[in-house]
Amino acid sequence: MFKRSYFKLFIPAVMAVMMTACASSPSTTSTSSTAPQDKSVTLLFNVQSPSIDPHTDINYTAIRAGVNETLIKVNKDLKLEAWLAEKWDSKDGRHWTFSIRPGVKFHSGKAVDAAAVKASLERALKLNPSVKNALHIRDIHAEGQTLSITTDKPFPEFVSELVHPNTAIMDTTATGDFPSGTGPFQVASFRAGSELNLERNEHYWNGEVKLKHAKFMFNEDANARQLAFQAKTADIVYRPPIESLELWKADSTVKVDSLPSLRTHQLIYNMNNHDLKKTAVRKAFDHLINRDEIASGIMSGQGTPAQGPFLPDFPFSPEYITKKFDLNAAREGFKEAGYTVQNGKITNTDGSSLHLTLLTYQSRAELPLISQLIQANAKELGITIDIRQVDNIDEYLAAHQDWDLATYSNITAPRGDASYFLNAAYMPEGALNYGRVHIPELERMITQLNTTVNEEQRNKLALKAVTLIDQENLQSFLVHPNNVVAYRNYVHNWVTSQSEYYLLTQDLDVN
Description:
511 residues; alpha+beta; 13-stranded mixed sheet; 24% strand
């Protein structure tokens, strides 16, 4: 059994902006198109991964690198697609039957049947509390290629939860340090936080895999990724520095995709903080956020100001009153919350000033800059913010309470439905409820949403929940960033996925 590590729980019209940058020849030993050739590609990713365990890896590396696959996948239109399960059915939203695709083998050579899938899901449930909380599985039964699952309550969206990368299917009986999956690539070597080397799965169930080798490298420093791309040590770079995009326009040998994503950058408030647990204080603090400056300045136009957790064209996004940067409104808000305002500065009733700690991280280069902007605006009101940068934001937020604010980023609607984010961010056991939010009325709404089948009714319930989140200002939602990827023009069939789940695929090719 290979070793356990860590965990984390993370796609509307595509508007691709094709731009261009330094050439190199692709890594290939042949140019024939009649058969798979000895071709390779190197992808440089923006988040370090300490693990490739598909059930606990916080970065979904095994799925992104094409090592493991899930029962269900999501396509570019946010629709569910068969993957290792070729079909599924439920009459009541609680009792589910899945037909496991026949003829599929793990990298170990073992056949994928219902029993193997059962063992894999049970491992994920055991090792990953967030998977257990998300799936609500009461029991699993396997017979041949038929998998039967009963949830502990009616759960109409259960099947969409099986899209999540931490439910990926692996051979639990395989020995060694690397996961045995079913994907187009299998692991050759792995250095935690540095690189993952991959080889073609010569017996891939879904047909030809075009690349013989692939390398998945990690570097959280945006400038380092930029330099590596310029030095031609990477063929694809995920999230290059935004300020470099103009450089790439000048060269026809590089393409850049910039797509509206379902990701939202946000400011998390720690509800255990005496000041921030007050709704009025959070509302006042929100006035210190200059969303236009974030989107147009820090993001160089590669994003749009966020009024809430979801893009505005979703049916569960309310008609927001536009949130504006306004220092005077912030002062008035603090004053209404019971603080003293003197010479434009905010103090407590005992005369002390507010002193807060804000966490951020560098794998998204804009987040430290956003933190500094918030820090500068707060200083105008006499509020001191200490910025601390941490290596693994999810692990830190989950394990520590010595912080007050945190910049954070996640995909809020990876399957086009509000329930994922609402459950993860606002339910007591939610994997993303780092701020310790506990609003009984909101929890009741989400619980009702979880058991509602009708899509129109689901959207109405989600809309009510999102409206309450806005009224309470439970987080400050900052910007919806574009998903930006640069790659050499000899790379073919690269798809910049809005889900950000599927990166190295069987169709990826070079010439």
